[in-house]
What does this fold into?
Amino acid sequence: AQKITQTQPGMFVQEKEAVTLDCTYDTSDPSYGLFWYKQPSSGEMIFLIYQGSYDQQNATEGRYSLNFQKARKSANLVISASQLGDSAMYFCAMREVGGSQGNLIFGKGTKLSVKP
Amino acid sequence: DGGITQSPKYLFRKEGQNVTLSCEQNLNHDAMYWYRQDPGQGLRLIYYSQIVNDFQKGDIAEGYSVSREKKESFPLTVTSAQKNPTAFYLCASSIVQGQTEAFFGQGTRLTVV
It folds into this structure.
């Protein structure tokens, strides 16, 4: 069974608008972390934001925020005021403290295209 | 500057040959990882290591081998036993304890010719 599910293979957003990229996860470990990475066409993986399972508040980093709904096992990424440079693949990932020595498990990604 | 370096950026291999992808980090991280990425797919774990001279198989280790003789280095060998090696390979490192992000290299694109 997939542990990280990203249901949107591709998304379009108008420049300067906000966009939400969906991510749901599956774990029985009470302690885990959720991560979002951006992968531009050059291929490198750029860390965007982190949310811990015990964090009371949603994480924010500049234009990025994470809408964490623990009961629904959902960790959606919200990008505000989209820019052309935001066009890239976005990956949601999870690290379980108890399993697999803390390896990052990735979803299949969402390709975001920002239209001018 | 601290970071993680992969080389080469592009690699071509003839069928039946072994090739080694280099990964070096100067972040003083104990944990290092190798992932494979196929077009339109997420990253799949090949091998990981949490300490020098120790490593474990990930989800798709068949046809690959690694070594961890130094903390800074975690080379990946793609052997002739790997039937479909053409892919993008990413190396990452992280501290072991705590929920911290992994830092990635620039990747190596391997093509079998």
Observations:
- The mean pLDDT of chain A is 92.
- The interface with chain B takes residues 4, 9, 32-33, 35, 37, 42-45, 47, 50, 52, 91, 95, 97, 101-109 of chain A (CB under 8 Å).
- DSSP finds no helices and twelve strands in chain A.
